[in-house]
Amino acid sequence: MNAPLQDFRGRARQALDDARLRANFRGAMDYLRGKRAAQFPDAGELEALRDRGQAIRRDALARLPELLVQLEARLTANGIQVHWAEDAAQANAIILDIVQKQGARRVIKGKSMASEEIELNDHLGAHGIECLESDMGEYIVQLAHEKPSHIVMPAIHKTKGDVAALFEREIPGTPYTEDVDALIQTGRRALRRKFMEADVGVSGVNFAIAETGTLWLVENEGNGRLSTTVPATHVAIMGIEKVVERLEDVPPLASLLTRSATGQAITTYFNLISGPRRPGEMDGPQAVHLVLLDNGRSQAYADEQLRATLQCIRCGACMNHCPVYARIGGHAYGTVYPGPIGKILSPHLLGLDASRDLPTASTLCGACAEVCPVRIPIPQLLIRLRTEANRDPAAQVAHPLRGQGASFSRGEQLVWKFWRGAFAQPTAWRLFRWLATRFRWLTPRRQLGWTQHRAPLVPARRSLHELLKARGQPE
Ligand code: SF4
């Protein structure tokens, strides 16, 4: 986690006041939206593919326990050692144990949000084991001692000037240059040496296929393939929801993922891992482990509505299209998963008490749900999480969420009760409106909170009464 979650409002305010950050994000989001749109010129094809993606993910989740058992059996038969982790602490302990049993001092890591979620680098570092990021974006944020600000492009908040200055400062003998190709070559040279020195490679998993016992990884840089094949031991980590039933389920999901995430028809590399090196093979790790991480996912799974959260294929499109994320960036959220997906996932990973501000950080405009390739109804889930955060903590419900009632307030309940009463009766509503227009002078003249950053919707001194009159509407 980047910083205490409770500071969300303060960090959001700071981000809004940072004109440079806002310009960086605005430019980056516009670019990514354009790239995605160009990949889906045929609306009919897009909607059909989204239907297919949603059906695959829903079917897999409906049979999740059964598929996980099948996956474990197939992986084990293929020679992959499977470990189950209930939470971040268990996952870290399992990976540390594997690394220590190898006598390893260096770990090289491909891109993995699950490893970010458990803060693996910090845990290994605390035990004297160096864990180096090999994905270029992750490498940049690690070098800068920062956290990723986007789930697909971790260093998207940085300009090429920022990266040039960072490389000049942190990589000995590197001159300042804003030539992107030269910067990439510098990073690659520094990383290639490390691949050869690493004893253990860690990676994430995009999809795990139950029928074949295969781990499917997508990437663009080749670092994932190096991380999973050069070191003697490969440890993969994934959330338990990433399983699908059949190999043929993956191509539609992979197509949705790459086109929605980076606007690419296909990524440069697809890695399909079905076991360690076999006798007679020239390369590949001698041992492969998979850590299956729950860490709160079972809570989402237990609830029929919130289960849709687990359909996510981590494309990041909801973030790129979110008007809140585009203005405050990823770090303001204080969570590993920012943006709309973070707002619906973090309450399960961290508890509603620790993340109660996040579901409220949305305009409910619905842009996220419109672009989500697997049709997760994000606004509905946000409303549900708001309800749970405001529910009386003592209320008996079938599947209480961790931290239920964290935002419960008796005063607010009373206001809503009054509002419901006024709204339900025409006479009371007309009276309320009549009073509200006459006493408008009591409302603040200044725009407060986040509205300070918006253009005034109406001239400050023009009353609702005058507006309605001008439009010829009855008060
Ligand atoms: S919620 Fe949907 S749009 Fe957002 S990251 Fe997940 S799959 Fe992509």
State the main characteristics.
binds iron/sulfur cluster; 475 residues; alpha/beta; four-stranded mixed beta sheet
Question: Could you explain the architecture of this structure?
Answer:
With 475 residues, the protein is of the alpha/beta class. Helices cover 48% and strands 10% of the residues. It has helices at residues 8-17, 19-39, 43-62, 64-77, 88-101, 113-117, 120-126, 136-143, 160-170, 180-197, 223-229, 250-261, 297-302, 317-320, 325-328, 339-350, 352-355, 367-371, 378-390, 410-424, 426-438, 464-470, and strands at 80-85, 106-109, 130-133, 200-203, 207-209, 214-219, 233-239, 243-244, 269-273, 287-293. Helix 9 packs across helix 10 (180-197), helix 16 (339-350) runs parallel beside helix 19 (378-390) and helix 20 (410-424) crosses helix 21 (426-438). 41% of the residues are buried. It binds iron/sulfur cluster. The site of iron/sulfur cluster has 14 residues, from helix 14 and helix 16.
